[in-house]
Amino acid sequence: MSGELTDELSRLEIEKCTGVLFLGDGAFQLTDGAITSADCLRTSGLARLVLEAGVATAEDWRRAEAGEPDRLLARPRLETLALLSVFDAAYFLLASPSVPEFRPAPPHWLAGVCRISPHLLVQECVRRGDPESTPWPARLVDRAPVVPVRRGRRRRVVLTGGQAEVLAAADTRRSVTGIGDYLGRTTYGCLVAVRELTTAGLIEAPTPVSPAGPPPTPVPAGPPRRRRARPPAPVPAADRWKPDADLLVRLRAALEDA
Fold it and tell me: Which domain holds residue 249?
């Protein structure tokens, strides 16, 4: 975890700053020193989470981004999803070696429902463990495909619903980030499931890749960066896996016979 970043977050909290802290492929939005939103290109993002959860429509989100968030802010589940998206992005951003750059800006529209102290954010990320722990270090979440093992060992494997959903979404092409975006789930949650499935012998260990190049230098001017929400492409019902008892029994039987 970058000491420079945690020090900068602490300073911004003490000085009750409002604006955007840019870092590598993401950013933190702060209001009076509290983190109100976070964005990272390696995570699904709040827009994807709220759309998949049915908390809002694509039109609701477009209105919120355009400065009319009242309708969306009235949804009770928005606060929970906003908190999840901040912790999700922070897990990856706090491990970034990039130099943070703060720019003053108006408060984010989520400030009324989501405020997290930097100290609490860092504490939660530490609790989640080392981002570079194996298998599947965090730096590979968007750089390596998740490949199911073709023939499992002959032993009983009991999967949780979340693990089964992630395993079903692993098509040898999607990365952990891709799986999270496809399912509308947090990248960290999918990463944990992939790590567990790899340990269980159901997912192949990732192929080593060359270290990533230096992160892009933040643009020195212009309005705060905000990733535009992209409405999820409609997925035919037949192509989406919905866990139920019968499917889990059949999946477990297939793994035992493999």
Answer: 138-207+239-257
